[in-house]
Write a structure and sequence with these properties.
The chain is α/β, with parallel strands linked by helices and 295 residues long. 39% of the residues lie in helices and 20% in strands. Strands 1, 2, 5, 6, 7, 8, 9, 10 and 11 form a nine-stranded mixed sheet that branches. A two-stranded antiparallel ribbon has the order 3-4.
């Protein structure tokens, strides 16, 4: 699918496809209040599970929420929402309609491939066009929050996404307590600052282990590294998410953990992070789509 097929500006698109692509993304993004990047410079830190549950927390608050899964080579968002068989459909308003799961709008490479074992082997030009289509080709409609789940690292996908969105509200950096993860997360903070966007804060994921029997939190790794890194880099610390067997089971089951976990310590940790992201968005963009309403 090419950009010309997504709107009625075909003559303009044919003359200046790159310019029109940016115009179309801007048109989509103008209907969205806060555009939040969720990122890490290291894989395996639980970035997608944080994105999933942060989105669900914001939805529980009554906001209109979407997730753009930019992780082309490892699109995990469909699995975490239990909609791996979801597929894009043509939207009557032009472009593709996002897949809806738990009343959250989703767009992912996972909705374009039938074989989950298929490896996506693309050069940068194909990735550029995919990101263009995911942000501009998908008819997101009016949202209060769009969470953008970026792949690990600070490479082409992250740069292209920032360039297309333009007015990124801020970035949430996900890390784990290990030194190597903290070292990489510091690079993510530097990358965002160098890009002249705001860092909302650092989340320390897998911070301790919640016993499935008694609920007591024990330290598997050293803790506090995320908070120290935030202090050193002069960015906010958003909180610690414990390593919870119920959280892992929920991800595998395709149900965002906070939708069924009640007031468990892990759910409370996610809610605390969501509160801070919400407050940041209120101060930054005023949530231009309006006050939360139960939808």
């Amino acid at each position: 699918m090419v950009t010309c097929g997504l709107c009625d500006e075909q003559e303009t698109c044919q003359k200046d496809q790159d310019g029109h692509a940016h115009w179309l993304v801007k048109k989509r993004m103008d209907s969205i209040g806060a555009k939040i990047l969720v990122m890490s410079n290291k894989g395996g830190v639980g970035k997608s599970s944080v994105t999933t549950n942060l989105a669900a927390c914001l939805k529980l608050k009554g906001y209109r929420v979407g997730i753009a899964d930019i992780d082309i080579h490892g699109p995990n968002i469909p699995k975490m929402f239990g909609c791996e068989k979801g597929r894009f459909k043509q939207d009557p308003g032009g472009g593709m309609a996002p897949v809806q799961a738990h009343n959250i709008a989703l767009a992912s490479m996972g909705f374009l491939i039938d074989d989950p074992d298929l490896a996506i082997v693309w050069r940068d030009a194909y990735k550029y066009e995919f990101i263009n289509q995911l942000l501009g080709g998908v008819n997101w409609g009016a949202l209060d929050f769009l969470l953008v789940d970026l792949p690990p690292g600070t490479g082409n996908e992250s740069i292209t996404t920032m360039d297309f969105i333009g007015d990124v509200t801020g970035a949430v950096i996900v890390t784990t307590p290990q030194d190597v993860a903290l070292l990489d997360s510091r690079k993510s903070v530097t990358f965002v600052k160098d890009s002249e966007f705001q860092v909302i804060g650092i989340v320390e994921n897998m911070s301790g282990w919640t016993c499935e029997h008694c609920g007591q939190l024990s330290s598997l790794f050293k803790t506090g590294g995320g908070e120290r890194a935030a202090k050193d880099l002069d960015v906010p610390f958003l909180g610690r998410i414990p390593m919870d067997p119920d959280l892992m089971a929920s991800c595998d089951r395709g149900l965002p953990y906070v939708l069924s976990a009640g007031d468990s310590p892990t759910a409370k940790a996610f809610q605390d992070v969501a509160d801070k992201v919400e407050n940041f968005a209120k101060q930054s963009v005023g949530l231009c789509a309006g006050s939360p309403e139960k939808r």
